[in-house]
Amino acid sequence: MRRLTALVGGLAFVCTVQSVRAESPGLGQPATPADVVSRDTAIPPDGRNLPVGSGTAAEGRRVYVRHCESCHGAIGKSEFSNSRGDRGVGAFWPYSTTLWDYIRRAMPSNAPRLISDSDVYAVTAYLLAINGIISADARLDRISVPLVRMPNRKAFIQPE
Amino acid sequence: MLRSWNRRQFIGGSIAAPLVIPEVAADALPPSAHKPGGEPPAYGVPAPDERYVRRTISEDGMIAKTPLAVQRGILTPSGLFFTRTHAGVPRIESRSHRLLVHGAVVRPVFLTMRDILRYPSTTRIAFIECAGNTSQEWNAPSGRTVSETHGLASCAEWTGVPLRTILEDVGAQATARWLLAEGADGASYDRSIPRDLAESEALVVYAQNGEMLRPEQGYPLRLLLPGLSGNASVKWLSRIALMEAPVYSREDTARYSEDLPDGRVRPFVFELGPKSVITTPSGGMRLDDHGTYQIVGFAWSGAGSIRVVEISIDGGATWREAHLDKPILPKAFTRFTGEFRWTGDAATVLSRATDEQGTRQPTREELLARRGSTMSYRYNAIHGWKVCGDGKVVRQ
Predict the structure, then answer these.
(1) Which one of B85, B114, B248, B251 would you mutate to disrupt binding with A, by most A Cβ within 10 Å of its Cβ?
(2) What fold, for B275-395?
(3) How many Cβ pairs within 8 Å bridge chains A and B?
(4) Which residues of A touch B180 (CB under 8 A)?
(5) Which pLDDT does position B248 carry in this prediction?
(6) What is the pTM of this model?
(7) Which residues contact B192 (CB under 8 A, 6 or more apart)?
């Protein structure tokens, strides 16, 4: 009986501590896995979150002319040229996933997320091909994009 | 235009002699003393004579710089707070805005603004400075006015919920050492931030200077990371993901990373060193008469409070301590003042700040020697203004 009392006392103590800790208000509506998938579109270097679809540089050139050229100009005179000082895509960007992510996230700037995922693959392929990073006939998809080795990756210091 | 606000700037100092009038005639009173005034507006605006106080908007509309020369105290009015957007200012309705918090959490949730307003809140004063503030000085001393050179820094009072409170409420796991903050603007602007940097002081902010955020400041919700590079204080905040590694977004890599002199690139650099600038006299102003003027300026540091500001009026040959106005708050503008007697000779006025860590604002030469000339972010060198023989104030 004494042991039981001690046990109950101990439980009461544990419960008190827990209730102090559990003061969190517990606000918000639960987000389902489907909610998260629809909103979490960021593409880290491992390519997680890349969607289905694919495209080639030749297809990408057509997309570029239609959606990109009016702001970015003809290739070779823009920030995609191979200039490290200008932080150009080919010379400076450490991950191809970043390029894919940014095109879908923010481009074209007058209608972000307008172009299809396959068109994003195609423009990515075009920009990487004109920089000589992938071959002109390569087809990019969710498997191949994270495998592209960007020339400047080694210059980036890994955070601790 | 600048000359006109110059005059206004200094006219107060030149009418020091009191007028002695033995008998006050009714006619001598200003016209306003002879009639009733108008009703106050429901939402007040600056006096008509002050309408020239404006931000300077860049050609592409993505940058609005604070007119620091006419900022009279440490708090930047909300309508004059600098703005940098990556896809313009979105229109977001408060009632439909939701913040998704997910990733390495026990309880992934959508938080509405009603939810956010129920959390325990806090208020503090903090500056925000764009990583690119004063960046044109990396190449060569340039710029005309203090708004052009330093107008990507402002200071305000912020109200919101400590990020830690929200992370605790959703059960953020200890293994998640990074977080991604993402905005609901047209660029879905996103930054990966080391959690230890973010969690210590970060606020999820909904109010600025006592009212709900202005649209261009992130309405209805933004992140505030006091003392850290402004690009981490993501506006129109709509998603926080707890992660074990950074996403390496475009802003994490192609922007806001630091070129080291040896050719390497360091991403995720957020620290802002001690910095100060004299706002009066500053570029574009003109001293009308010889005599005494007050030097006014602001100092700030991402590392904490300002300990001392020194002023030189001889181009850095000799320095003396400026007066610091209270309050002297960590990671906030501190207003400093000093006296300047202008004899009519050309003179160069400089200021340099030292923060509570003992770090002193470097000279331009020291900064270039340490960080190289390929940098484009986080410039914090000593800045000077030259008062010419004719009273014009120009870049040193």
Answers:
(1) B248
(2) Immunoglobulin-like (2.60.40)
(3) 124
(4) 42
(5) 98
(6) 0.90
(7) B178, B179, B180, B243, B246, B247, B248, B249, B252, B268
